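Sharing a chain and its predicted structure for anyone who wants a worked example. Both blocks are below, sequence first, tokens second.
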Amino acid sequence: MTSPTVDLEALETQVRTALEHGEPAALKVLLRQYHPADIADVIDRLDDADQLRVFRALDVLRAADVLNEASADAAREIITSLPSDEAAGLLGQLSADDAVAILTEDVPERRDELLAAMRPDDAADIRELLSYPPQSAGRLMVQEYVRIRPDESVGHALDLVREVGAELGSLSYLYVIDRSQRLVGVVSLRELVIAPSAQQIGAIMQPRLITVGPETDQEEVAQLVARYDLGAVPVVDADRRMLGIVTVDDVIDILVEEHNEDTLRFAAVEQGQADESYFTVPIATVVRRRVVWLLLLFVGGSLTANVLGLFEQQLHEVVALTFFIPLLIGTGGNTGAQTVSTLIRAMAMREVGPRDVWRVIRRECITGMVLGAGLGVVALGRVLVSGQWFDLALTVALSVVAICCWANVIGALVPLVARRLGIDPALVSAPLITTLVDATGLAIYLLIARMLLGI
């Protein structure tokens, strides 16, 4: 097993060399030394045929671990390339939620074929999870957990943990279930260990529970786990019957996935699979995801040209005005991008809601004026040092103040309006804000120039 500082580039080179020389025995020996996550990273960088060759060099248990760590695209490509019985055997080695993550995007015919080849119990668990909405707690939950009755003793509970604990992927809590299978409490493993053996579970359980329903969005689940420092969160139905748990390792995956989604949306790129690998995405798919937003931003950018056309006469009379256009629109775009980033983060953390719109606008307006005043002083000196006359320097300085204030207001207002309209604020990306601020900021600059310079 390698250290956390494993050189993945060197490992990839060794794997490719073994593949090129047709040395399956050497490849098997090499892969035994590495963690499944490291092997999965290398597999993600290989083409489809080599992915399968590397995968076949692994024993069944390690192959299942690697499959679980690989990107969604690579895992699905491997599964669809294997015979149904072999693929079903591998999926059966995974927990139901991990198998569902791989089968989610498969064509229904192939999915049904694989489920039919699996053990009936495993297939039934997977079908149940697939019945819940995508990106919901139901899709993520693990159905293996320790159940205990409130009238049973701590000693009995400890014996139960010893008996079944090794079979569980996560063991942070014991869930207290009444005779109607309703969740009535939870006991942490720490509380169980320090309690007297003869004490009843009902005396040490925590009856105030934080639970989610199977349709709860995965991002809300992650926020609950992070807020209350939970090792797992129980999933219950409308009658509080226990359905499963979402564990903290799945929550980490959720946070990574949501971060990736927001990063792509903020860059105006259509979201694909959250864990797909860069090299596994076809170029045609990359172009399709980017082109729509680029076209929209291109059209929006034409507003800047229209503004320049409206003030063509003024620019012709005072050519020096054009020298500072990049400075001003760049400042406005950067200011707006900072504001929208800060506000979307605050909205995601539920620090800001639609009811706070006027407080936010007032706050950002004041912030923009203060920032603009500081930058305006710098701009005044910059223009004067360049040899321009004072009136032009004053025009640039006042424009910086006005544009900073305006950019802050736009950067705050647009995400709030988007949330009110039911649109994901992350879709209102920084490039869109920059495009809007460029055109309006340029208009502000030239209007101030018209007033101060008399052109």
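Comments welcome. The domain at 146-248 is CATH 3.10.580.10 (CBS-domain).
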